[in-house]
Amino acid sequence: EVQLVESGGGLVLPGGTLIVSCAASGFSFRSFWMHWVRQVPGKGLVWVSRINSDGSSTAYADSVKGRFTISRDNARNTVFLQMNSLRAEDTAVYYCARDPDSNGYSALNHWGQGTPVTVSS
Amino acid sequence: DIQMTQSPSSLSASVGDRVTITCRASQNIKRYLNWYQQKPGKAPRLLIYAPSSLESGVPSRFSGSGSGTDFTLTISSLQPEDSATYHCQQSHSTPYTFGQGTKLEIK
Q: Can you tell me the distance from the alpha carbon of A86 to that of A14, in angstroms, rounded to the nearest whole number?
C-alpha cells in the first residue's frame, strides 16, 4: 500500500525555523518526483515546491523562494521541507505528494494526510 | 506565473444531474492540466490528468477535456459521494498553480 506520512508540524514563532518530513512507503520512492502543497483550512491549494527523483533539481513558489528548501534522502525514503524565516502567512496544512513525472508530465497521484504548521507569537 | 481561474466557485446540483466545472489558464498551457477532488478534512485525490485521462480507480462518470487555455471537468450523472471541492492545477511550468476551487453540493 502506498503511504506518505508527514510529520514535524507544529507551533513556531515568527522568524523561526521548522523542518517538516514526509516518509514514503509502498512504492519505489527514488523513481518519483516529490512536491509540497499547502492549504489554509477552508481555502484553496497552494503549490509550494518540488524536487526531482535524484534531488538534482528543485523549484519553489515565489512566496517561499529563498526561505524554504526542499530536499530528499532516497536511502531513507523521505522528503523534507526546511522552512526558515517563517511568517504568519505560512500558517497552513502542509501536504507532500508524489509525482510519477511520466513522460515528462507532472500530476500528483498520491498525497499524505498533511501536517499543520502554525506561525504565531 | 500562470493564473488559473475556476468557475463557478460553488454550485448545488441534484443526484443524476450533469455537472460541468470550468478552468481557465492565463496563458496557453497546452494539455498540462489536472483535476483533483477533495472532501472535508481529507487530502486531495487525483481524478483526471493530461487533461482527459482518468486516474486509476476513478469512476467513469468523471471526464475532462480542453486544451490551450480552457478546460472542463464533467460529471455525467451526479452521485451523493461526489459532494466535494474540485481543484484544477496546471503542470505546464513552475510554479504549478491551482485554481481557487469549486465547492459542489448535493441538493
A: 5
Chain B touched by A112 (CB under 8 Å): yes
| Residue B55 to residues A8, A15, A117, B40, B48, Cα–Cα distance (Å) | 30, 40, 30, 21, 6
Name the amino acid, one letter, at A49. Answer: S
Eight-state DSSP code of residue B55 = P
For the segment A39-55, what is each residue's pLDDT rounded down to a tens digit? Answer: 999 999 999 999 999 99
Q: Is A108 on the interface with B (CB under 8 A)?
A: yes
A57 and B CB contact within 8 Å: no
DSSP 3-state of A99:
strand
Q: What is the pLDDT of residues B64-106, one digit of tens each?
A: 999 999 999 999 999 999 999 999 999 999 999 999 999 999 9
| Whole-angstrom Cα Rg for chain A | 14
Helix (H) / strand (E) element for A85: namely none
Q: How far is CA A68 from CA A32, A49, A62, B92, in A?
A: 21, 9, 10, 22
